[in-house]
Fold this sequence. Notes:
By secondary structure, the protein is α+β, with helices and mostly antiparallel strands. It has helices at residues 7-18, 34-50, 67-81, 99-114, 127-139, 144-147, 170-179, 196-211, 215-244, 253-257, 261-274, 282-289, 376-382, 387-390, and strands at residues 26-29, 54-60, 85-89, 120-122, 153-156, 159-162, 250-252, 300-304, 307-312, 315-320, 329-332, 338-340, 343-345, 347-348, 355-359, 365-368, 372-375, 394-398, 401-407, 411-415, 422-423. The protein is built from 14 helices and 21 strands. Strand 9 (307-312) and strand 10 form a beta hairpin. Helix 2 (34-50) runs parallel beside helix 3 (67-81) and helix 5 packs across helix 9 (215-244).
Amino acid sequence: MAPPLPKPLLRLLNDALAETPPGRTVWVALSGGLDSSLLLTLAAHVCQAAGRPLRAIHINHGLQAAASAFETRCRLLCDNLSVPLTVAHVVVDSQGKGVEGAARQARYGAFKQSIPHGDTLWLAQHQDDQAETLLLAALRGSGIRGLAGMPYRRYWQGLTLLRPWLSISRRTLAETAKELALEWCEDPTNLDASLDRNRLRHYVMPQLQARWPSTASSLAKSAQHAGEADQLLEEYAAGELASLSVGDSCLNAAALNQRSPPRQRLLVRTFCQQLGLPTPPQKRLESLLAQLAVSSDAQVKVVWEGVEARVWRQRLYLMTILPPLPDWETVWDGQPGLSTPLGKLMVSIPTSRPLMLRWRQGGEVIDLPGRGRRDLKRLLQESELPPWERQRLIVVLEGEACVGVIQPPDQVLWQAAGSRFVATPVR
């Protein structure tokens, strides 16, 4: 006779399933270990009873000899449960970062590539994982967001990530897996005490729990409180950022500089998160904030992890680092859709002569309607176009004459007298 299924765990999965929109698929991140194997087993029961589609995804990092055994175990479990399985083999590049962080980055990259937008991914982290995450964050000196640990729900890259079992202890999951006679793989790296999380798990947490038996649940509860506080701060910051916004990816630096330093730090970090950019390390953030009040003609540039922040004319710009431009020029027939290093050019101009396109090089002069011949350099200085964008303009030449300046894909900044540029909508 089969053992009864654990009602508390099933109830949590049913609650999570209720948050998944009808018609969307539930995915389970399956490592082949105890936690995720149990999650998939019970998820199969819940989804089958509700008539909802379920899939599993296994990420093979290739970092250890046991990787193939984990993949085999995942395939067997999915076959037994009649759950479709997607296996993604990834390359973990740990250069410049720890192996754990690099593996996580590769794993989430595979999630993004393999799971359709709008679907939900269930992750098997539990209460003890949450407690360890909070301790690790505290040891790194993290702020309120780090101390919040792993959120129950997170919207990321078009996916919904859910952790249904954050309130359940590791012991409860292990006991349930044994009662169900579940088979799984033990990850040999879980015994490697050189890894920070394993050292906490095997040496620190047992001592804490020996003195305070409710350590894991108490720390997880603290993470929940920190998460609520972080959410409130984010809501506040979003409202204030709306009043500071002066365009896409741009804030009023002078107004931001009038806020207190803690508010400045909160607002810049939240702005990065809104733009999907990594938040700056503390020293880079302090360097940036110290330069908010520079003169309007000065150019400030602070760089971190693929992001550059610039202050110019009392505005703070945040963006991904602009790649260098290749040497480039091409002949153009005036038709839209021409490919350039900055994407397709969605501008047209009636012409019977071939035109030449190239980057701005300096010394260009354009004959503007009603204004006469004007130096392009002077026009740019008078404009609100930031200096780093001025080199990414396309100059249109007819013979030796400059007849237009375009900011890809479809912004005609200036056109010579007699020319008729037309921006073409992208379909």
